[in-house]
Amino acid sequence: MTRPPTGAPTEARPSARITSFVHHRARLTEGQQRAWDRSWPVLGRDVADLVAGTAPYDPAAWFGREAPLVLEIGSGMGESTAALAAAAPERDHLAVEVFEPGLAQLLMRVEELGLTNLALLRGDAVELLRTRVPEASLAAVRIFFPDPWPKRKHRKRRLVQPEVAALVASRLEPGGTLHLATDWDDYATQMRTVCDGEHLLENTAASRPGGWTPRPVWRPVTKFEHRAHQEGRDVHDLVYRRRCAERTGDHAS
């Protein structure tokens, strides 16, 4: 989704695990602060608390029902997140983001639309998936416009790497989907290569040219995506499905 400016990246240790974010510091507007004060205590949770076990990871309790669960890694300013949650009231949605103004802006959208099927989590989605999200528990995972880390020396920091693809795939229920989108050509190719190499995933558009999924009409066009088009960057979508049964023998076959 819409990426806030990254500013100066934090240096990662060579042995550091991949995370889903870079820390950003920014002030909230008055409207965002009011929405935060009103709604964060009800709708928001810190991933660090869930990982530490000081707060429970319990979507059924949060939403008061059992429903298919969609997790979005990096909800940005929440433009698509809120619209997609509103369009699918039969599904519950988890938006994981570290950028507080983005979370606050999403809270404003939740209040405006009266959404009851969206919860917000502040922190590292990868650590949440690794430590708290049960296997085969998600109907879908969305990764829209993750930080492209365009400099070659920084590309090891990109989110979509083999270990993350394997982790996400393991948390999808059989038949669940992983939907990715990016406006950086080389990152799109990397995403496709990484996900093609994960034996639990199959490309739903494998028979189409390049393996790209046609842009879904239901995915809202955000201001960020509109700007990408204005600047001449193509947007690539990829949709993978978790296989209903693991293949035997050569996983890469």
Beta-strand content? 15-25%
Q: Quickly give the structural class.
A: alpha/beta
| Major sheet characteristics | 8 strands, mixed
Number of helices: 9
Function: Catalyzes the formation of N(7)-methylguanine at position 46 (m7G46) in tRNA.
Protein name: tRNA (guanine-N(7)-)-methyltransferase
Family: Belongs to the class I-like SAM-binding methyltransferase superfamily. TrmB family.
GO molecular function: tRNA (guanine(46)-N7)-methyltransferase activity
Task: Characterise the protein shown here.
With 253 residues, this protein is an alpha/beta fold. It contains 9 helices and 8 strands. An 8-stranded mixed sheet has the order 1-4-3-2-5-6-8-7, with helices on both faces. Strand 2, helix 4 and strand 3 (92-97) form a beta-alpha-beta unit. Helix 4 runs parallel beside helix 5 (100-113). It is globular, with a radius of gyration of 18 Å. The two termini are 33 Å apart.
What descriptive keywords fit this protein?
single chain, about 250 residues, alpha/beta, eight-stranded mixed sheet, 9 helices, 8 strands, about 20% strand, disordered N terminus, disordered C terminus
Compose a concise summary of this entry:
This protein has 253 residues and is an alpha/beta fold.
